[in-house]
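for the writeup, i need someone to sanity check this before i put it in the appendix. the sequnce is what the collaborator sent (i think, or maybe the updated version? ugh). structure was predicted straight from it, no edits. if anything looks off just tell me and ill rerun, i have time this weekend
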Amino acid sequence: FTSRFPVFAVTADIVVLTLREGRLCVLLIRRSSSVFTGRWALPGGFVHVDETLEEAAYRELREEAGIGPDAVRLEQLRAYGDPGRDPRPERVVSVAWLALGAHLPDPTPDTDADLAAWVPVAEASGRDLAFDHARILADGVERARAKLEYTTVATAFCDRTFSLPDLRRVYEAVWDTTLDARNFHRKILSADGFVEETGEVIRGRGNPARVYRAGDATTLHPPVLRR
């Protein structure tokens, strides 16, 4: 019996974003395996037969970046399965993920890579990435930018407590723009449940800055729009 359906394999590829020195950065690995050797790519790998798609994503995060599940907010991005996206003989479909976190550690390459690094998104987007990872990266960055408008996901890039200028710098880095501080702070404080005061202040050369933590909300009402 010969099936008319091709042999399929499934991979988990992850767009991992964090802020470093005020810049939005993505985790890239330089491949050392037999396919696209020497090319930069997103971290990822094949899904094992005994694990779920989400378990595979978390395993790859742990193996390739030393990142545990408590360090990031992980969500499924979309699936990529165009013919020819992977040169291997089987048809390979990638279920891509978006992972956002604050102060993520320096990566350590695994057996499929000889180098791993945090790369500014603007620089990574100009590289000739392996597979269709340039497309996946672009989709992941746009998803992150859009989610900052209507969800509270920006706090994933912050410490447990933060000031409004800290939060504004997240928006500026992810959106690659400069925001009016007073207008931005007004929008944040008018969004129900986005942030809540801790009662602490940060004292410096200027006026004391109030300290906040993430509130209970997951969506923003009203949204914080890019325009």
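The mean pLDDT is 93. The beta strands are 8-20, 23-31, 40-41, 44-46, 73-80, 91-100, 113-120, 161-162, 195-202, 209-214.
thx in advance!!
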